[in-house]
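Our consortium's second objective concerns turning raw sequence data into structural hypotheses that experimental partners can test. To show how far this objective has progressed, the report includes one record in full. It was chosen at random from the queue rather than selected for favorable results. The single chain below, 441 residues long, was entered without modification.
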Amino acid sequence: MLTKMSPKIWLAGVQWLFFMFTNTIVVPLSLGHAFQLGPEEIATSLQRSFILTGVLCILQALWGHRYAVMDGPAGIWWGLVLNLCSSAQSVGMSMTEVGGGLASGFLLASLTMIVLGSLGFASFLKKIFTPIVMGVSLFLLTIQLVVNFFKGMLGMNSAGEIDIKVAALSIVIAIFVAMIHLKGSRLISSYSILIGIVVGWIAYELFFPTTHTAQAQAGSMLAVFPWGAPNLQIGIILTSFIVGLINMTNTITCLSTVEKMYQTKTTDAQYKRSYLLTGVFTALSSCFGLLPFGLFTSSIGLLESTKILERRALIIGGGMFALLGLIPALSGLFSSLPSSVGNAVLFVAYLQMFGTALRTIQGIPFNSKTVYRIALPVLLGISIMNTPPQAFSVLPIYLRPLVGNGLAMGVILSLVLEVVVNWRKYELPITPLTASQKPTS
């Protein structure tokens, strides 16, 4: 089957490989440092992350939701874990206690996703996930990702100072990718992400030649609970349960949006299979010291940019990504990809998500009252994103990661507003202007 595929699909698969890599590589690295793991354990986490993410994407494309949508380490969990790690010492908890509590919380979240998903919880979520809620989620996700990528483009050091040369090259790469997408032929435009990463990587090596050190040897791939054995840190477990429910809503946002590109309707069976796979791999993540999994709504940005909707491309990319984890030399090679290059390319790719968010709320009338239903959650989320984490230190440690997460709080507020407020009674009928009201030139 694979040998009969066109070069176009193989190239699209390589593009998916780079997309998965640039979205995944920093997660196990940052978590390994947060939990003070050794180089061998971090290398093992990288390999596990590559293998599980690649295999899960293949299974989702073949049997789960059956779209070209990446399933990988969920960003909403990333903020929770890093926040808990940074706050552990101030409340007298060891990293092992935090890690063990998270392992228990991840297991509970996976069980919740599997059970609720199999019971048809997606049908309930679809009812309350109005176009406004999906629009809010997409707006906030776009803003969060693009801001992070922009900071990564600038080559900031620990003091928050930008590297002018790295920033200049990143801007040139971003403009180059944008021009390919806007001015290139349909074929060339479809591979703008791949072209941008390859050309950007070569340019970076030419301007900033580096000597690559040997990669640390990975430890045992079968060792379990590197963060700490499961325990009963009730606060962490309950917070993980809430975040797990929010992560389930991300599946609704993602599949409800991407189905329009495929001009089809996602069935309840597809939702159930998707939740089952994500839940099972989340359980594996708790055992292997990885973040729980979730659908990447950011995949929409790639699909919008490339217009390649073939599931086979994702399957090829997932297979290559899993292969990186099985061959340490390859994962070491890809680990040398400059983060500023990946961030510059993804910055352009994710701009497409902003357009998707706009189309989601297109046609919905707004006036001075109904504008609250989107302005309040979006602007609250942005405000929280721009508030220093220390500002939430007055809250209990278990509430800080949730309250300090602008994306989560924005979506929660949007859901509450849609359920509690009857917006129809605030929608004023649009009346035509009289002759006296019309502006004169």
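The partners drew two points from this record. The longest helix spans residues 234-262. The chain has one domain: 2-363. Both points have been shared with the crystallography group to help prioritize constructs.
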